[in-house]
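Here is a tokenized protein:
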Amino acid sequence: MKEQDCLRRFIFEKLGVRGEWVHLRESLQQVKQFQTLANDAVDSQLGQALAAVVLLSATVKFQGSMILQVQGDGDLRALVAQSTNERKIRGLVRSANRVSGSNLKEMMGAGHLVLTIESEISEPYQGIVPLEEDSLAAMLHTYFMQSEQLATRLWLFANKTEAVGLLIQELPDQKHYQSDWERIEMLADTVTEEEMLRLDSEEMLYRLFNEEKVRIYEPESVTFQCNCSRQKISGTLLALGREELEAIFKERDDIEVDCQFCGEKYRFDKVDVENILLNQAMGKEGADTQH
């Protein structure tokens, strides 16, 4: 059975290069069922973003979430993909009803790419690059070059059924492996969309690197899971402030908030909101008492 919904790490023995391969299928479909996708091109961009964030989340050690956001002023206004350190993914798209353009830059217009790590055990990290390349893979290549991090390349492909991705990255503290990196990058650059979508990880790695000694690790499962909660939505309401909330209640009896990632509905009446505001005033910011 074809590998799916998993991440495979690999390393080149005796070389200063590591890599990752990812395939999304069921998890991708679960993300997409809650999104309105204007056309197949937008569908593909969401798949590529989800594959990318899974790959990137596995290159760093953290406990929490990595969020990839591409925002622009074109027909495709926002593309968001998130993965936890446990490979739980979710994503969303915001666009006009009709999206023109044959590549990501044309669809999004002027804007930027933001990569954020929200960690439970350390300060959040955020990096930003302008939206100047045609593809997400090229944008991420620019991001790593401009941020002076480890040399990193990605290859991303997606259709209506599945999304796949390949990443290679130099290992830290490598001083004598430039020629190795260039050789591995050149070999990886021969991969085709058909091969990525058709071949399992071991078949693809053999096709690309059969003259190299590659060690591949056990698969890590990737699943769809939204981490929204009533408490987090309460925090969003708090950010509006008492005055804005009271103005809303002059027009309606309750506030209903839909999660944009999974469609879950959260309902708050006046008593709920008053409790949220009181708890904040008492120093229990974010707490939520239901009745």
User: Anything to note?
Assistant: The first strand starts at residue 6 and ends at 12. The domain at 6-224 is CATH 3.55.30.10 (Hsp33 domain).
